[in-house]
Design goal:
Length: 651
């Protein structure tokens, strides 16, 4: 779709919505009496009954962070580092939870795993998803393969998309405009545009939600110029998102949910940093197109509930990339298909004990066409069938237990077992909950690692085990919430890339040896008054040398929210990132060189004003107020001081 049409459509919806807005309508939002989480049992569970410290980014918190990306929002959570969120919009993202890496973090959308089966690590690209379509996010850290299977080795990010409201017809329109500049090359021209709208409604039996989003960003180069006198060409980024969800209530016990979405990103990029200064180019472009559809029936009966989550995902990535050796542009395309079917049942054995049992089926295939060789999807595929069971016991005296196991049956490498045990105790006489857990997990070799020209069909899964212990408390009549968790992880069978200097052959291999990671995460929330709230977290992470890349040893996030009035909201956010290690390809020696990146601090602020209650809201934000010049990845540009203005209208 033409970008101008998308913008005009979004603006039209904004104007139309304004015309229908009624100032005298007041919709009071009632806070839930009991906060619930779903990530550690797949069903709603009171947070005090959970044996995990699960970070939850609520709809209200997302409302107070307009104009931010999913990556930037996640980067404020204790124990989570999303590398690349401070760089150019088209920069690849790195997910590091508790010292892990991309393929050890499982991302769910509405409880369904998402990934790119053609990628080396099979990870999902969070750049595909706009924050405006997200209702809430849960982050559960630690090994979780018992419930979620492969990839849930260091954490699970469960993203819940928006759905229909309670009205028969309602809508939402938004737009924002901002600058996009680095600290050394400041400019105040409008370079960041984001706009979209949604319509939704509900009748007695039918519910629906449809949304469109468009984003265009330009202004900076992906790689950083060697000094402020050199100006590299801009690397623009664009994104287009369509989302549709339909629900039908067949009976009071049976509901049917359908979804479909199409996401597309396009961006220019540079050849990757080296120290020869030859990587900047205007010839490299890439696009990713994702199509997902799914069906999820739910059936409730007297003592339980059965859910069938199913989805089909097709993703196509293409690249036009300059080959500096031949001085020609080569074309590459990667295509993957994934099917996920997860049928699980919750059965209440007793009022204090329920069982979750299920079977998950996954199928992945991929093919690619590149200047260096092709991969045929007929021989590049695998499937998995995993039965699993989890028991959840919650007692009246405060003792809770979550324990389970999963049997993974893989078409390429055979079978294996993972399990978890997660006891906790919530003191009745004290505002204190003690948590502990021991969990094992696995990461399946990707199709690329198994079957590409560098593949090794004899690879077996990476394995790890995680132990954690901590506490959670509430003080001062629940005005202060504080939690501390310590973790220790061991991983084996690490999949690495090996080059044989004798035969000049390269391939993926399982590397012998044990790699360890340990750390402490703590978060404190302090309601200074009804209007003023302070939320801060600190993360300490220590990993073995083999894992030590782009992971800060110390990290601090601190957020101060001030509700000046019922209509005026202001916050300020501080972030400290400790020194990290990185590496780059040395164009002079043709070797990989390690470097140490310095620590940095960033301060951001935002104001949001509700002109018309629950109808018309405007916001303004400043990112990197003091225009700090820092390095997130060696040789890549980072964001300096930038401004953004936006508005949202609800019908």
């Amino acid at each position: 779709m033409n970008k101008k049409i998308v913008r005009i459509s979004a603006l039209f919806v904004l104007v139309a919505t304004c015309a229908f807005a009624q100032e005298n309508e007041n919709v009071a939002s009632k806070r839930e009496l009991e906060e619930v989480v779903v990530s550690d049992s797949k069903f709603a569970l009171a947070k005090e009954k959970s044996g995990k410290v699960i970070a939850k980014i609520t709809a209200e918190e997302l409302k107070n962070r307009p104009g931010q990306s999913i990556a930037a929002i996640l980067n404020t959570v204790a124990g989570v580092e999303i590398n690349g969120n401070q760089s150019a919009a088209g920069k690849n993202l790195g997910y590091y939870i508790r010292g892990g890496k991309n393929n050890q973090v499982l991302i769910l959308i509405d409880g369904i795993p998402v990934n790119d089966a053609s990628g080396i690590s099979m990870e999902y690209d969070l750049r595909l998803l706009p924050a405006e379509q997200v209702e809430s996010i849960e982050i559960m850290k630690g090994a979780a393969s018992t419930l979620y299977g492969t990839g849930a080795a260091t954490g699970v990010i469960n993203i819940k998309l928006k759905k229909s409201g309670k009205k028969s017809v309602s809508g939402n329109g938004y737009c924002s405009i901002g600058t996009n500049a680095t600290a050394t090359q400041q400019n105040q021209k409008a370079s960041d545009f984001n706009q979209g709208f949604s319509v939704n409604g509900r009748t007695t039996k039918l519910s629906y939600f449809a949304a469109l989003n468009s984003t265009e960003t330009k202004g900076i180069s992906q790689i950083a110029p060697p000094n402020f006198n050199v100006h590299y060409e801009e690397d623009p980024f664009s994104r287009l998102n369509y989302l549709a969800k339909i629900g039908y209530k067949v009976t009071n016990k049976l509901t049917l949910d359908f979804f479909g979405n199409y996401d597309q990103i396009k961006n220019a990029y540079d050849g990757g940093f080296d120290n020869t200064g030859t990587s900047d180019t205007n010839l490299n472009t890439t696009s990713s197109k994702q199509f997902r559809l799914g069906f999820s029936p739910k059936f409730k009966y007297d003592k339980g509930e059965f859910v069938l989550s199913s989805s089909f995902n097709k993703l196509v990535r293409s690249y036009d990339e300059l080959d500096t050796y031949s001085n020609s542009v080569g074309f590459s395309q990667y295509e993957s298909r994934s099917v996920n079917v997860d049928g699980f049942n919750k059965y209440e054995v007793a009022p204090s004990f329920f069982l979750v049992s299920g079977v998950q089926y996954q199928f992945h295939d991929a093919n690619s066409v590149t200047p260096y060789g092709n991969i045929d999807k007929e021989s590049t595929k695998f499937n998995m069938i995993d039965p699993y069971v989890t028991g959840v016991y919650t007692s009246n005296v405060g003792f809770n237990l979550n324990a389970g196991a999963r049997w993974n049956s893989h078409s390429a490498y055979g079978n294996q077992l993972v399990y978890n045990i997660n006891p906790s105790f919530d003191f009745q006489s004290l505002p204190l909950k003690i948590i502990s857990s021991y969990s094992t997990a696995f990461v399946t070799p990707s199709l690329y690692q198994l079957y590409s020209q560098y593949g090794n069909s004899k690879l077996t899964p990476e394995k790890n085990s995680t132990a954690e212990v901590g506490f959670e408390t509430q003080l001062g009549n629940k005005k202060i919430r504080w939690n501390v968790v310590g973790f220790y992880r061991e991983q084996t069978n690490f999949i690495g890339f090996y080059y044989n200097p004798t035969t000049y052959a390269s391939n993926y291999v399982n590397i012998d040896g044990l790699n360890k990671a340990k750390g402490i995460e703590t978060e404190i929330q302090f309601a200074l008054s009804d209007k003023l709230k302070w939320n801060s977290n600190y993360t300490f992470t220590q990993v073995d040398e083999a894992l030590n890349r782009l992971i800060p040893k110390h990290k601090i996030n601190s957020l101060l929210d001030y509700k000046v009035s019922d209509s005026f909201f202001w916050n300020v956010n501080y972030q400290y990132i400790d020194a990290r290690k990185d590496a780059f390809f040395d164009g002079n020696t043709y070797a990989t060189t390690q470097v140490k990146l310095g620590s940095y601090q960033v301060l951001n602020t935002l104001v949001r004003y509700e002109i018309t209650k629950n109808k018309l809201t405007v916001f303004g934000s400043v990112h990197n107020i003091f225009n700090v010049d820092f390095v997130e990845n060696i040789g890549y540009s980072t964001l300096g001081r930038n401004f953004k203005l936006g508005l949202t209208i609800n019908l």
